[in-house]
Specification:
The chain is mainly β. It is 5% helix and 40% strand. The strands form two sheets. The protein has a five-stranded mixed β-sheet.
């Protein structure tokens, strides 16, 4: 499934929302974990693939489900819930893998569902309040409130780099 959406006339932000004048909003791939929406920058995404059970790797980090082949290359499969400190993924269901590139390797992030591609203007992104109590706050770029719900934006480098569960500032950048 190709994720490079065609450019459309609604993409450019023209400053009406208080964002940067004439700046293009960044596009995010929106996905679900449990009942919460998350977003990954679209430029970090290689493709979306159907989930298939990977081969376990002894001694790997607890968030690593294993490895699986994808188009002739080995893909490390990560349970995104565990990586975000949300607990293990429940078995079953029709999970998807969001394939991203980490350095020269491909990594599959297991999610419950992929929803859509959505633009986020720089002025929309806000820091995540500490009161939300999210584990692994360093893995988030910030949050966007839209239509009565919260979209949590993921920093793929911080997510894949592991890191700690410390309170890194999200800085309010998209």
């Amino acid at each position: 499934m190709s994720l490079r959406p065609p450019e459309d006339a609604t993409s450019p932000a023209q400053g009406a929302d208080g964002g940067a004048q004439g700046a293009m909003p960044e596009r995010f791939l929106i996905f679900m974990l449990e009942a919460q929406e998350y977003g990954l920058p679209l430029d970090a995404v290689v493709e979306v693939a159907a989930y298939r059970r990977p081969t376990p790797v002894p001694g790997a980090d607890e968030a690593v489900e294993g490895i699986t082949p994808l188009r002739g290359r080995m893909l490390t499969v990560i349970d995104t819930r565990r990586r975000l400190g949300l607990g293990p993924r429940a078995g079953g269901g029709l999970a998807k893998m969001i394939v991203v590139r980490e350095a020269e390797e491909l990594v599959g992030l297991v999610v419950d569902a992929v929803i859509r591609v959505a633009p986020v203007a720089g002025g929309e992104c806000r820091p995540i309040p500490a009161a939300l109590g999210l584990p692994r706050r360093a893995a988030y770029r910030g949050m966007v409130s839209r239509e009565g719900h919260c979209l949590l934006l993921i920093d793929p480098d911080a997510l894949l780099g592991g890191g700690d569960s410390g309170d890194a500032s999200t800085g309010g950048r998209p």
